[in-house]
Here is the input.
Amino acid sequence: MHDIKWIRDNPAAFDRALARRGLPAEAGRLGAIDERRRSVIVKLEQAQARRNAASKEIGEAKKNKNDAAANALMTEVAALKTSIAAMEEQEKTVSKELEDALAQIPNLPHDEVPDGKDANDNVEHHHFGAKRSYAFTPKQHFELGEALGMMDFETAAKLSGARFVVLQNGLARLERALGQFMLDLHTTEHGYTEVNPPLLVRDEVMFGTAQLPKFADDQFRTTTDHWLIPTAEVPLTNLVREQIVDEDKLPLRFTACTPCFRAEAGAAGKDTRGMIRQHQFTKVELVSIATPEQSRDEHERMLASAEEVLRRLDLHYRVVTLCTGDMGFAAQKTYDIEVWLPGQNMFREISSCSVCGEFQARRMVARYRTREGRHVRHVHTLNGSGVAVGRALIAVMENYQQADGSIAVPDVLVPYMGGMKTVMRAA
Here is the structure.
């Protein structure tokens, strides 16, 4: 959510930033709505002040036994009460109109974010490792999983429809091992607090992290009007909603490994085979709540934490800075980590790490009190995948595949696999 006062004071800068995202100017429209709102508020305050003054004057008139004046004042007060009630409703209506308009506008990009229209204009930041060489043609993860008898899309479709999978035996354990490894790394070495959050949340919680109202079609809703979380970012970030946190407690760092649910409403025809794009998947999420002064360094720190997962798995990846046309709705700046998949012969996103500034905090009314105690300000929020567990499973399968179709277990995961070093088809 944007600060309408800042927009009023900086209309040209606001519209320039929207133009970088390929969006039309909005400062004029928003300013006009806000002007109507402020006009109503001024009239309302004047009417309330007059009502209060007239009420006192009634007492004076009665005290002076001036019945005519008292009656006239009581008539005026009655009329004012009626008009005040109407103006209060008008103020609510116009304020809601402004809030709804602001809620539809994405965050403004940082100055250093590269301009561009889509993913083709993203800029590589750095990379790690190199592509592996194979004495055979690498297969895709679903070919490997089905041949192992441990990845079943057909049965999943009978149970739930398209974009679901049933994992069994070694692959089910390998996915669980990946999630546990990531949580242990982030909690013991990276300073994140593990959280087991609810998977069902209310409207205001989804609004707080900006999934609502704009992206309602991408979400699953229950018969109780709860939403299934599309990412643990939603409950983790909202842990500080409607709170004032002491500055000394910041930054707060949270992590969780949860199922995530996405309708993939715009994914028709995309990644229809395999586990790349599913309605239900597992992800380890990283969330930071910081001061404005801490947020940029915290963004780099979060990226490094996510990268360390892939480094310990010895997976080749690159980091790209997303351009203005490819950034998410709530982000000011985003790094994507893209892991190399030899079966697909391409890089695929496995993590996005974004700094959101105070955009989400304004929607959540999440603030902090400065050390001196003189000021209360909005916190900055950050979120990132640390990393997507399902896609990490895909990356391990494709990078660690062997000529006989078995999957070598990365050394760092062997303890989580009960000492198992190879996932192979049962004899």
